[in-house]
């Protein structure tokens, strides 16, 4: 009975892992890159200069800019620069007839000169972030598919713990250069050593989408009106309507200072001004997510914009929102400083590696049977092609995305969409290449190509912008320099992987291996 | 975070050495029962003990997250170093323990 249970779990682990492995690899890798979303955006929009942070100056500049360019807007939004994202972003919504939504205009303003920055049109790190849960599919299908993948991941984790029963006994064991054995060791090592992260990230992704995955409790209490649930959960700061009497808006800086005092020095993330220039103008100041581990969407301080009078202080989380806010915060890691952010990144890579090694092992085990004849059945060939395209092909696509950012002319129409197209074209080509080239050759060629793309990123950056490593390092712009250096490091790693793949010993058939093992034992 | 990292790494190294197989690989001998017990106890004391410096510096919520991250990464580092640079892996643990008072002085 017990063996039967374990075998059933092993079967589930193997097949759930295979079917969803390719998708999960992409979700994990792009999600890992999303930990450096702001840094990636900064690299992809080098026109946005980094300045020493000064919130009061930024706020004054933003208010002056909006006053000049959008005095009649229905709403203003101001996102302050932070150490990760140097852009001072302002957005406004045009005033339209009641019942219609005015369209939004967004600009990045230089926090020192007060001029709008003419930055190239690019999705930046936002692309990876969106892709990792929307999968470039129309709403809501991508979210459903990624949530389904998260559930399968959770199943694969639990069944994996049951299947690989020796993982805790062999906790410190990793034996390289032993073929299939090393892949299993590696799979177990990155699995069990980083297990708390895997469990946290998978479970929290389900918590984030819980209203979508398990709507029953909401429907039971609110009926079909799920909107009522959300407006109760996030008390939409219920703002007074405009009265139509003009009144000048007070300076935002004292309100900013007062809000921070309410949070004992906590950081401000975003400000929203409703009906600027009206006697009933209101200012909502939202706390930055980088302050605490648990996300709290209700942390808002509101003022009357015309008088500067304090209207409302939101806050005080109930236990359930605190729990879900903690999972949310842990998943996205907004609170993480540079060190912890790197640890998050490494954990994410470990998760990606766990999925990758699992896929490689599935194929390796079955290939052994066919190693002698050298002819692979169609289904194994298919898995091999998908393995290559989903792993090295995705890396190629990411490299192509960065290259497209630097090579496409800034004046191109719908430029940011072209970058995304470059990503998918490169990925598609890699699939074609993997289908045409035999196993190891496919791996070596794609990995080498990706290594070249990544390693040359600093050079490309130096040739196409004036922000090369010499400049960014000297100025202390660590987001820019770190991106270049990380690409260089990734290129070196991929080159090493390609080299390893080229010089790997061919998998041996089982019988031959067993024979050699016997010989060894006899020799001892 | 540094002090917690040093303590976690040393703790995992002690636990690793308390197994016959790894003790044999690293020190080419079988551990005596007393030494095995000593290593196991000090390992299990160091790991939870490293929560304290993490929490003392960063508070409970942030500190616990940092401790978990450091716990995972120190184990990963040790396991990846062991097959390639076993002496370095051991040396790091020793040097780390020696550097603990300095790290404590700097961070706490």
UniProtKB/TrEMBL annotation, chain A:
Transmembrane stretches in the record are 12-36, 144-168, 189-214, 342-364, 385-404, 420-436, 443-463, 478-499
InterPro entries documented for this protein: PepSY-ass_TM
Keyword line: Membrane, Transmembrane, Transmembrane helix
UniProt keyword NAD, yes or no: no
Q: Which PANTHER family match?
A: IRON-REGULATED INNER MEMBRANE PROTEIN-RELATED, PEPSY DOMAIN-CONTAINING PROTEIN
User: What is the protein name given in its UniProt record?
Assistant: Peptidase
**Species the sequence originates in:** Pseudomonas trivialis
From TrEMBL, chain B:
**Transmembrane region positions?**
37-57, 64-82, 88-106
Q: Which UniProt keywords apply?
A: Membrane, Transmembrane, Transmembrane helix
Q: Does the keyword Transmembrane helix apply?
A: yes
Database matches in InterPro entries: DUF3325 (IPR021762)
Superkingdom of the source species = Bacteria
One Pfam match, given by its short name, reads DUF3325
**Keyword Membrane applies:** yes
What protein name does the entry list? Membrane protein
Q: Lineage of the native species?
A: Bacteria, Pseudomonadati, Pseudomonadota, Gammaproteobacteria, Pseudomonadales
């Amino acid at each position: 009975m017990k063996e039967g249970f374990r075998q059933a779990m092993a079967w589930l682990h193997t097949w759930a892992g295979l079917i969803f492995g390719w998708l999960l690899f992409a979700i994990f890798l792009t999600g890992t890159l999303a930990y450096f979303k702001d840094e990636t955006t900064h690299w992809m929009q080098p026109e946005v200069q980094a300045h020493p942070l000064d919130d009061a100056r930024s706020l004054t500049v933003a208010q002056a800019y909006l006053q000049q360019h959008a005095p009649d807007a229905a709403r203003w939004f101001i996102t302050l620069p932070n150490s990760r994202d140097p852009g001072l972003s302002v957005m406004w919504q045009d005033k339209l007839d009641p019942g219609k939504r005015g369209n939004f205009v967004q600009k990045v303003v230089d926090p020192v000169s007060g001029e709008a920055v003419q930055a190239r049109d690019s999705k930046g790190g936002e692309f990876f972030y969106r892709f990792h849960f929307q999968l470039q599919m129309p709403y809501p299908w991508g979210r459903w598919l990624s949530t389904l993948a998260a559930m399968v991941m959770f199943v694969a984790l639990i069944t994996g713990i049951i299947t690989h029963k020796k993982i805790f006994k062999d906790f410190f064991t990793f034996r390289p250069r032993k073929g299939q054995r090393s892949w299993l060791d590696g799979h177990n090592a990155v699995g069990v050593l980083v297990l708390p992260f895997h469990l946290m990230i998978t479970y929290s992704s389900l918590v984030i989408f819980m209203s979508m995955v398990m709507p029953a409790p909401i429907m039971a209490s609110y009926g079909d009106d799920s909107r009522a649930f959300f407006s109760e959960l996030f008390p939409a700061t219920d703002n007074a309507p405009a009265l139509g009497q003009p009144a000048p808006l007070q300076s935002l800086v004292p309100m900013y200072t007062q809000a921070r005092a309410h949070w004992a020095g906590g950081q401000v993330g975003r400000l929203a001004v409703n009906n600027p220039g009206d006697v009933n103008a209101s200012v909502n100041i939202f706390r930055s997510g980088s302050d605490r581990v648990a996300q709290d969407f209700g942390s808002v301080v509101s003022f009357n914009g015309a008088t500067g009078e304090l209207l409302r202080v939101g806050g005080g989380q109930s236990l359930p929102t605190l729990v879900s806010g903690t999972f949310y915060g842990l998943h996205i890691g907004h609170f993480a400083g540079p060190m912890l952010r790197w640890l998050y990144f490494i954990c994410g890579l470990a998760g990606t590696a766990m999925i990758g090694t699992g896929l490689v092992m599935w194929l390796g085990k079955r290939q052994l049977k066919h190693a002698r004849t050298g002819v692979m059945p169609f289904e194994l060939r298919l898995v091999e092609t998908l393995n290559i395209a989903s792993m090295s092909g995705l890396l190629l696509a990411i490299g192509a995305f960065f290259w497209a950012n630097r090579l496409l002319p800034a004046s191109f129409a719908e430029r940011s969409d072209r970058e995304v197209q470059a990503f998918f074209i490169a990925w598609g080509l890699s699939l074609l290449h993997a289908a045409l080239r035999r196993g190891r050759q496919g791996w070596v060629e794609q990995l080498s190509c990706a290594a070249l793309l990544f390693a040359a990123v600093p050079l490309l950056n130096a040739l196409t912008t004036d922000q090369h490593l010499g400049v960014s390092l000297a100025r202390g712009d660590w987001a820019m320099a770190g991106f270049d250096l990380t690409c260089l490091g990734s290129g070196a790693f991929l080159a090493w992987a390609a080299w390893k793949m080229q010089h790997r010993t061919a998998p041996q058939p089982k019988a031959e291996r067993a024979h050699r093992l016997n010989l060894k034992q006899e020799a001892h | 975070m540094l002090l917690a990292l040093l303590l976690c790494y040393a703790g995992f190294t002690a636990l690793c050495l308390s197994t016959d197989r790894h003790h044999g690989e690293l020190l080419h001998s079988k551990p005596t029962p007393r030494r095995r017990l000593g290593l196991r106890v000090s390992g299990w004391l160091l790991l939870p003990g490293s929560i304290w410096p993490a929490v003392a510096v960063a508070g409970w919520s942030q500190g616990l997250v940092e401790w978990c991250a450091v716990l995972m990464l120190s184990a990963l580092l040790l396991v990846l170093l062991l097959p390639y640079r076993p002496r370095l892996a051991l040396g790091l643990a020793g040097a780390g323990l020696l550097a603990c008072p300095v790290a404590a002085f700097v961070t706490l």
